[in-house]
Amino acid sequence: WALWLMDEMRRLGLWPDTMTFNAAMAACDRGYEWQWALHLFDEIKMNFRDPDAYSYCIAMKALERGKDWQQAFAMLGEMQLASFSPDAAACGHIAKACGSAGRWEESVAVGVA
Question: What are the tens digits of pLDDT across the range 46-61?
Answer without folding.
Answer: 877 789 999 999 999 9
